[in-house]
Amino acid sequence: MANNQSRPSIWIRYVDVTFSLFDSKDTATRFLDFLNSRHPNISVTIELEENREIPFVDVCIKRDHNTFSTTVHHKKTLTGLYTKWDSFTPRKYKSNLIRTLTYPGGSQDFSKGGHTVSK
Q1: Burial 53-62 (b: 16+ CB within 10 A, else e)
Q2: Strand blocks (E) in 7-107
Q3: What gap in Å lies between CA 10 and CA 22, rounded to an integer?
């Protein structure tokens, strides 16, 4: 892209989801138009922050001036149900679920708010 004005200052990709930071909504929209003009079979969508926060994967990123903080993000569809131990699911998945749920301090630390990063 020849115009550096439309490039994001932060670009973090996880599988098929990307977190990007732009100077303005207009710049983000121009970059979205650029990406969607590259190939007719590729369609990129955008989700803008609301109330200075935006979910990214399972993390809620909150912005306060030059500071970012994170908390665990639960989707509205979260049921809180887990795989039954006697289900036909590979044992390694069930063991890792138990390990994740019983990680020392894990759930307590997540509920307290996570990390803060300053720019």
Answers
A1: bbbeeebbbb
A2: 10-14, 17-21, 53-56, 59-64, 67-72
A3: 8
Contact in structure between 60 and 73 (CB atoms under 8 Å)? yes
H-helix or E-strand spanning residue 35: helix 25-36
Written as one letter, the residue type at 103 is Y
First-to-last C-alpha distance (Å) of the chain = 25
Question: Do residues 48 and 25 touch, judged by C-beta distance below 8 A?
Answer: yes
Give the number of other Cβ atoms within 10 Å of residue 35's Cβ.
15
For each of the chain's 119 residues, which pLDDT tens digit applies?
555 567 898 899 989 899 999 989 999 999 999 999 999 998 999 999 999 999 988 889 998 888 888 888 888 888 888 888 899 999 999 998 888 878 665 444 444 445 444 44
0.70 exceeded by pTM: no
